[in-house]
Design a protein that fits this description.
Length: 449
Amino acid sequence: MKIAVIGGGPGGYVAAIRCAQYGGDVTLIEEGPLGGTCVNVGCIPTKALLKGIEPLAQWSHFEKLGLEGPKPSMHVGKLLKHSNKAIQMSRQGIEYLLKKNSVSLIHGKAYAIKNHTIYIREGDKETSIEFDKLIVATGSLSSSIPGIEVDQEKIIFSDKALELTEIPTNMVIIGGGVIGCEMATIYNQLGTNVTILEGQSQILPCEDTDAAHALQKSLQSSGIKIHCHSIVSSVIREKESVRVVWTQNQQSNSLDTDIVLMAIGRRPNILPSLLDPLGIQYSHKGVLTSPYLETNHPDVYCIGDLNGKWMLAHTASREGMIAAARIFQKETPPIQYGLQPSVVFTHPELVGVGKRIADKTFTYPYSANGKARASGIRDGFVKVFIEDNQLVGCTFFGDHASDMISLATMAIQNKISLSELSFITYPHPTFSEVFGESIELAENMAIHM
């Protein structure tokens, strides 16, 4: 079976490899660098920068543990070199995996489709390939506010923010979601005066309110200014600065800044030239898909940010695996968007999975954990959401949160009862014990609270 995949991001390349593992004759088409947004201007460079500034973010904490001396400074050039190395290694790793699994790679732009033939431009030449099944994974683009021009000089998207060689004195970030909070963390530690403008009542509007408020307090304590209920009306570029005007609680406010980062989210990269000839149904919100990533065309699947369902790299990869299994008639469960964990890699981290509202909730603090006390950490908690004596959701706020959320994901997905979860032995002393203790708390059997 001939399989064509358009897009080499975390959805596309995973789908291509899985189809090849099932025995397909697979061709992957990618016009840019392999890895998509995640590898090149998203997950990987952002986490590389966050790792670089981590000692700066935790310096006052290290001083409390006895470390003496002046706070270190950051060599921005070396930090960007580290980020670029991580990007290059990830690209090379994907290319190696494609070759290993005999996936044909075409570096070109798929610009048209007719029947079951894709037409591709590779530089100055054109080529075409035929397919039996097609997986479209063209990703997403940064969103902007209508009427505000993003010139990528003074008013920028996150991709540009990842490569600034001169650190601005002041920055306004429009949007207090994942991108906004992570970028605020990076630039704040590099010495920039950061202001976040968020339109909703809290930063990270989709996350648990208690956790979002805890993170907001942490960001503010580090010097980041945050204004919620703030609707931006204009961004005006002046000679040496940019003026941002917004309304908060019916009052008009303005601020002059060096750089404005537009971080209000992303939108599906809809390409009508590829979708319309096949009669694929879509809207501005994304391509319409079934829980098995099928479109209304029997031979076309759509995965990743393009369907607009859950714009996360690990979700795109899971969708790619499901689409591949469906194509080759392998057994697979449907995608469960409620079980896709979300992670905010700030300092501390905020992660969640499942429901954020339930009949009963129980919160267990890091301050009651031995490893946290030994590490000098008091801020942080795990909050579990319980319905009918079953774990249905979980939020972590604190250090190492991203390393522990899979415990909750596995428990929710497999419907493990609270009593079964309470029988798991967690090594001591570890941060993972806070999850076990939260389950005992839900059963009214907590030892250390």
